[in-house]
Design a protein that fits this description.
alpha+beta, Jelly Rolls, 3 domains, seven-stranded antiparallel sheet
């Protein structure tokens, strides 16, 4: 048994004996809170204590040793059981501890549950949303993305979990690293801005750094960190579990947040892919003859209808809206 385990085992006994200070009770409560295994150990000690100490109380309340007593002013020696007051007092105190033990254990468990920070789960259901984290950091979630984080960050680390596409602007705190878990990788920063997409094309997680510096690594290999500088991006392949560093050539990675898009000799199929992400729509290219039509155009915070009208005039498209889907057809490139 290691030294730490011995300390907590002794602390449990001290608590059951009613000799633990308020500070020790808080330490014990925090230890129980730390894991289900610790709670199991505490409850096992309680059961043992209930059995052993109750038997002790029954036997020690009575002393069968020869004892000299005074009865009706006559001194006599006999083997009559009598109560020893110091022992009796101590046993009463232990009995009292046992009587309230169930309540105390429940109170500690309740206390622990109350002390645990509540987890926040935020989902961008139908539109892009901005959300402020407990440290003042801001995150922009694209439609369908979700983030989990505690109501209050721990003293030594700020942990969040992301699914989907998001842009972070992290408040600087050198003493408390900000760590994003995105599928099988983690991104660690002190204060910077960066983009993450856990659902990028070809079954990849994509990370693009806008400002500052970040470290990216697999959760199971935290010692193998890859450092990104401003303007660089990393791609993590879920298939082969590899992280690759690249230059970021995608001007539109923040378009879901800014609604600004720049396309230079870009195939219509790629433009449509971006529009579906940015506007959370379902645009389909019905005629393959127009899929490779290359377009040079810039959009700046324009509505989807305005964007489609520009594309229509540029490529001579036919646009058919059917429910939530939009079909594009045409006779080819101009």
């Amino acid at each position: 048994m290691d030294q730490q385990s011995t300390y907590y085992n002794e602390l449990i006994v001290t608590y059951f004996a009613g000799e633990a200070s308020e500070e020790e009770i808080v330490v014990l409560a925090n230890w129980i809170k730390a894991s289900n295994e610790n709670l199991r150990i505490f409850e096992e000690y309680k059961q043992i204590w209930d059995t052993v100490e109750v038997n002790k109380i029954s036997s020690k309340l009575v002393d069968t040793d020869n004892t000299t007593i005074i009865k009706n002013n006559n001194i006599s020696s006999k083997s009559t059981p009598i109560y020893h007051l110091p022992i009796f007092s101590k046993m009463l105190r232990i009995a009292a501890v046992l009587m309230i033990l169930a309540v105390s254990a429940g109170a500690i468990y309740y206390f622990l549950k109350q002390q645990q920070p509540k987890n926040q789960h935020v989902v961008a259901q139908n539109t892009t949303i901005e959300n402020q984290l407990p440290d003042g950091s801001m995150v922009t979630l694209n439609t369908g993305a979700s983030i989990d984080y505690p109501e209050k960050f721990k003293k030594n680390k700020r942990l969040v979990k992301l699914q989907g596409e998001a842009y972070f602007n992290v408040t600087h705190d050198q003493s408390k690293p900000f760590v994003v878990t995105a599928d099988d990788i983690q991104i660690e920063v002190l204060g910077t801005s960066f983009y993450i997409n856990t659902q990028a094309a070809n079954d990849k997680v994509e990370v693009v750094l806008t400002t500052g510096k970040i470290a990216i690594f697999r959760k199971d290999k935290p010692q193998e960190k890859m450092i990104l500088e401003s303007g660089e991006k990393a791609e993590f392949s879920k298939t082969d579990q590899k992280i690759t560093k690249l230059e970021n050539n995608n001007e539109n990675y923040m378009a879901f947040k800014t609604k600004k898009m720049v396309f230079t000799d870009t195939p219509l199929s790629e433009i449509v892919y971006n529009l579906n992400k940015i506007y959370s729509t379902n645009i389909l290219i019905k005629d393959k003859s127009i899929a490779d039509c290359k377009i040079t155009v810039t959009f700046n915070n324009q509505s989807l209808d305005a964007v489609l009208n520009v594309l229509k005039a540029t490529v001579d498209l036919n646009i058919l809206k059917s429910g939530k889907s939009i079909e594009l057809s045409g006779n080819g490139c101009k």
